[in-house]
Amino acid sequence: GQNIDQPTEMTATEGAIVQINCTYQTSGFNGLFWYQQHAGEAPTFLSYNVLDGLEEKGRFSSFLSRSKGYSYLLLKELQMKDSASYLCAVRFGAGNMLTFGGGTRLMVKP
Amino acid sequence: SQTIHQWPATLVQPVGSPLSLECTVEGTSNPNLYWYRQAAGRGLQLLFYSVGIGQISSEVPQNLSASRPQDRQFILSSKKLLLSDSGFYLCAWTPPVRDRGDYGYTFGSGTRLTVV
Asked: Suppose B108 and one of A30, A35, B91, B94 were both cysteines; which one would form an S-S bond, judging by CB atoms 3.0 to 4.6 Å apart?
């Protein structure tokens, strides 16, 4: 199978930095996505990585190491509204389909 | 611009009743379409995907079915709902493979189904 692993829950303090890790099987890898999902809502796109390195978008950054089958999402200057689930998803092979990890529920505390 | 519509937003149905959820996409042609289910506090489980009219692939054997009667319409159905069918159902689309680029999924707003 194409397992994608990420921690189930994380807690962080407002204003701090948090890193959410994601590991996946490298065979057939063809792109990695991070989505944010607030409770009861649909996931929304955060970032896309297909080459090694760091992609930065404001307070959010995403890193990829293809050889290690590893990615992380870095959230800086945490705000209460960042409390949500963060989904790591990988595209394998030539198609468009994504395989999702179980999601990491992030709780930001004052 | 492209938009995706999914309805209804919430649904409460008795066990054994039928189900029909609809998803439509605007502003694009020949999209790849997907149905996912998300149980409470869990990840996304792929149910069906379609690369064209009448072309449906099923990922999980169950009492659900999907149809794509038009290019931009994707329907999820069941003849008899089970309690285990409760969950959050999400429709999503991507451009055709040849246009893929860095597009991931764009999701509909979801349907919260409770089977009682």
From this structure: B91
Question: Residue A103 is nearest to which of B43, B102, B103, comparing CB atoms?
Answer: B43
Greater model confidence, A19 or A57: A19
Phi, psi of A41 (to 5 degrees): -120, 170
Residues A66-97: pLDDT tens digits?
999 999 999 999 999 999 999 999 998 877 88
pLDDT of residue B99: 61
A96 vs B contacts (CB less than 8 Å): 32, 94-97, 100, 103
CA distance A76 to A73: 10
At residue B95, the pLDDT reads 85
Res. B70: pLDDT tops 90: yes
- What is residue B77's predicted lDDT score, i.e. its pLDDT? 96
Taking CB atoms and an 8 Å cutoff, what residues of chain B touch A42? Answer: 90, 107-110
Q: What is the DSSP letter of B27?
A: S
DSSP state of B101: T
What does each C-alpha distance from A16 to A20, A87, B25 come to in angstroms?
13, 20, 39
Chain B positions touching A101 (Cβ under 8 A) are 43
A90 at B interface, C-beta within 8 A: no
Cβ atoms within 10 A of the Cβ of A17, count?
12
CB contact under 8 A, A96 and B95: yes
